[in-house]
């Protein structure tokens, strides 16, 4: 059994307008997605801004109420608050946000910020609590003098590490990390990602790693789902997505990975332009007449893509 099974998840937001503020339409933020997260793995959820990634993440931690579908944990549907309570779900599943300056309370000291989940769930003595907080700071490479400081006294990278320390405080099974390094410089990104990987090795936690950038998740993820317009356009292992991408939208995201070596920059730009041209010319073959993402078709046991069967066959013929 997978750690988490998301089944046909839909989250619609009402759009209100007019004098009576009536519901006149809805945003299909998440429009029917399914994925399974295994214990100890990193699952990548990737797509451009507005594709429904955060809404999916928030539904999984129980911060957003789905319109439809199920999220199973230990065989129970945690979209029902009663089941979340019964399973201690809020202890087992934690979230890290992109913007640590707004997600960490600016008026609280680091000691209290990191201890907060412990106070909710662990009920330790004062001394044990302090020991645990010191241990957590050490895990993310921060000194003991951080205890008495406030969030604004740290750099962005240090604050993300504090967010990681708080998220792992209760020994969760899953951490939903929503664009955890997107606001950081490249060198600092690598540092935070390394701490996250180390924590995974030491504690066996799973991550749902949300990013708009396929470059960032390349070395993190075991499996990846590519989201567009509230649906999954392609899903597979890291090898499926990076080495055998099939959907035109996945190819476009891959071509958008920033090229770090100066020598290849020109080449990368040309490639990006070619992919963009192909996207503009052929994208309607990959979406229905209303622009909706097509149903997923299995290409292999691990790899699924949202395109017509005859296009899949054609691409596979070209491959042989
Ligand atoms: N609380 C909300 N009310 C109405 N629309 C929302 C709300 N949250 C998100 N949306 C809309 O849902 C869509 C998906 O948003 P989101 O899940 O934040 O995407 P992503 O994280 O991929 O950028 C967007 O069109 C966004 O504007
Ligand atoms: Mg988001």
Automatic annotation (TrEMBL):
PROSITE patterns to which the protein is assigned, alphabetical: ABC_TRANSPORTER_1, ABC_TRANSPORTER_2
TM regions (residue ranges): none
Pfam families: ABC_tran (PF00005), oligo_HPY (PF08352)
BP GO terms, sorted: peptide transport; protein transport; transmembrane transport
Record-linked Gene3D superfamilies: P-loop containing nucleotide triphosphate hydrolases
Keyword Protein transport (UniProt): yes
An example Gene Ontology molecular-function term: ATP hydrolysis activity
Entry keywords, A to Z: ATP-binding, Nucleotide-binding, Peptide transport, Protein transport, Transport
Domain ABC transporter: 4-254
Domain of life: Bacteria
Protein family: Belongs to the ABC transporter superfamily.
Protein name: ABC-type oligopeptide transport system, ATPase component
Species per Swiss-Prot/TrEMBL record: Furfurilactobacillus rossiae DSM 15814
């Amino acid at each position: 059994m997978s750690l988490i099974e998301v089944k046909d998840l839909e989250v619609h937001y009402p759009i209100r307008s007019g004098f009576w503020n009536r519901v006149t339409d809805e945003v299909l933020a998440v429009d029917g997605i399914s994925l399974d997260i295994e214990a100890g793995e990193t699952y990548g959820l990737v797509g451009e801004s507005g594709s429904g990634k955060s809404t999916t993440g928030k539904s999984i931690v129980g911060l957003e109420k789905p319109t439809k579908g199920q999220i199973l944990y230990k065989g129970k549907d945690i979209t029902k608050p009663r089941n979340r309570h019964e399973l201690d779900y809020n202890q087992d599943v934690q979230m890290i946000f992109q913007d640590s300056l707004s997600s960490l309370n600016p008026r609280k000291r680091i000691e209290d910020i990191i201890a907060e989940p412990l106070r909710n769930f662990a009920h330790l003595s004062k001394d044990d609590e302090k020991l645990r907080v010191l241990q957590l700071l050490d895990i993310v490479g921060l000194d003991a003098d951080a205890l008495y400081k406030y969030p604004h006294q740290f750099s962005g990278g240090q604050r993300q590490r504090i967010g990681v320390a708080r998220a792992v405080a209760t020994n969760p099974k899953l951490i939903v990390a929503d664009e955890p390094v997107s606001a950081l410089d490249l060198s600092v990104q690598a540092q935070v990602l390394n701490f996250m990987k180390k924590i995974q090795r030491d504690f066996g936690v799973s991550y749902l790693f949300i990013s708009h950038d396929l470059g960032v998740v390349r070395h993190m993820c075991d499996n990846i789902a590519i989201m567009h317009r509230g649906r999954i356009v392609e899903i597979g292992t890291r090898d499926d997505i990076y080495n055998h991408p099939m959907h035109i939208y996945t190819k476009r995201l891959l071509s958008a990975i920033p090229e770090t070596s100066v020598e290849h920059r020109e080449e990368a730009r040309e490639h990006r332009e070619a992919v963009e041209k192909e996207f503009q010319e052929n994208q309607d073959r990959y979406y229905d007449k209303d622009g909706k993402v097509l149903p997923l078709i299995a290409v292999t046991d691990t790899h699924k893509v949202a395109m017509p069967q005859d296009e899949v066959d054609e691409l596979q013929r070209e491959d042989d």
